[in-house]
Structures are given as structure tokens and as C-alpha cells.
Amino acid sequence: MADTGFPAADAEHDFLRIRRRQVLSRLAGRLRREPDDVSDVLPFDEVVAALGRTGEKRRGLQVIPLDSIVGSVDRTRDFDRWFRPRSGRSRERWERLARAQRRGESIPPIDVYRVGDLHFVRDGHHRVSVAHALGFRSIDAYVTEVTTKLDATGIARRGDLISKDLRRVFVDRVPLPGPALASILVTRAWSYAVLSEVVEAWGFRLMQQEGRFLDRATVARRWYAEEYQPVVRMLAQADLIGERTEAEAYLHLAGQRYRLMRTHRWDDEVIDRLRSDPGQ
């Protein structure tokens, strides 16, 4: 950070420098053919909707890392992911804050929501932008922590919300306890929707067999204990999982089983047929 001793001139230079970086970064992204949302500020409402909001609690004034601020409540179009201004519309306000910061004046804390380890700005977008431009690593913030059904791990860009949203729907439709749920992983988000239907179909057949209604939680627990775990063990012993996750192998081979044999059972005959199927 250059310091000429003239805060007004330095603030003007700071704004021009950060705008130039934003423009060059956008151009580089296009040349690399990156997805359009790589440099977008994450929208708070979409994130908590995908994760399933369950509550919130005020945590008071804290010092938070600047790099943890990845989103905004209502200013997603004005700044990029690193809070560089996307236009010159806010230049006067931005430079006023930069001048004050360079003169050593106290800057009010920002106001943020916290979701996991991520922070979303409610108030103070320009202060965050100036702090980034001046090389700060942390900032004072009033924090409100938002709790969600799913954690925010793995959210790097807007496109990642699709996977989180589909997994949240899977959790609603197949309410497994924590350890069991953690073992159900797929690499293609849409597989969560397919797996939800598979579990619901299994539960329907179970209710027909037993002649009584079972709620979703009961169906989920029994499917995991009576269907999923035993089948995964059989597939592992038969060396039919390969490089897929256990859930992906279960889904794929269940489909192949019905295609080949029109059956929902799992036994040695089914496993032998699957092992000899060239489609594997």
C-alpha cells in the first residue's frame, strides 16, 4: 500500500487500482472460460434457503477474517467476490472511507450474518472493500449467527448451492440420524433426488408388506439398516463398488439389477448376475 502522505490522492489511487484489478480479473476469467458465478458475491438468502435455516442468535462485536466475508444480503451486483467495486458509481463514498482510514480515523464496525465459517454483509460493504484494498486481514463486525440444517462446507460459488439444496431436500424426505446421513454421499447432486425416490419406493413396498403406515423417519432408519448397509457390504465383498461412492454404487447397481432381472431382492444370484454384466 503506497503512502504519499496525501490521503486524498492516495485514496483516489486506491480506488483506481482496485477497479483496474476487478476489470482485469473479469477479463482473465472470460479468457479462461470460467463459470460466470466464480467471481460473484454469494447471495445470503439463496445460501440459507439451500442449507435450510433453523434459527439465529446475536454474537455481538467480534474481529472476523476479511477472507471469510464471501456474500451479501442485498448488494450482490455492486461488488465482486473480493468486494472490488464493479463500477464507478460508489467512487465518492468509497474514497471518503479510504481517506478516513488513511488518516487513522475510527471506522464503525460492519454488520454481518455468520453461516458456518462464512460471513455475509448486512451493512458495511464499502468498508469491507476499502479494508481489502488497504491490505487488512481482519475487520470489526457485529455478528448474527444463523443456524442451518446443513453445514456450509463446500460452498465456493453460486453453482454449489444446487448441490446443497438437493441434499437438503434429501434430508427432508429421508430424515436419517447424523452418522447415517454423513455416510450417504454422491458426486452428482441430482443423485440425491433419485436416491430420495428409491428410499420412498422401498418404504412403500415395506408398508404394503407389513400392512401399516410408517412415517418418514421410521422408513429412513429401516431402509438404512435393512437395505442400504447389508447391500453395501455385499457389493464391497463382490468388488462392485469401484471408484464410486457407496451410495452411487448402490444406486447404479439397484438400477442394473431391475433392468436385468426385474427384481427388488438382493441375493447371491443377483450379485453374480451383476458381476457378469458387461455394463459394469
Helix count, DSSP H or I runs of 4 or more residues: 10
- Helix residue percentage: 40-55%
> Which series of helices and strands comes N to C?
HEHEEHEEHEHHHHHH
Nearest-angstrom radius of gyration?
Answer: 26 Å
Given the helix and strand composition, which structural class is it? alpha/beta
Choose one word for the global shape: elongated
Which regions have little confidence, pLDDT < 50, spanning 5+ residues?
none
Taking all residues together, what is the mean pLDDT?
85
How much of the residues is beta strand, in percent? 15-25%
What is the terminal-to-terminal distance? 59 Å
Main sheet: strand order: 1-3-5-4-6-2
**Biggest pleated-sheet summary:** 6 strands, mixed
Give the helix/strand layout.
Elements: H1 7-31, E1 42-43, H2 44-51, E2 53-65, E3 69-72, H3 91-102, E4 110-115, E5 118-123, H4 125-133, E6 138-148, H5 160-173, H6 178-182, H7 190-210, H8 216-237, H9 246-261, H10 268-276
Parallel strand pairs: 1-3, 3-5, 4-6
Antiparallel strand pairs: 2-6, 4-5
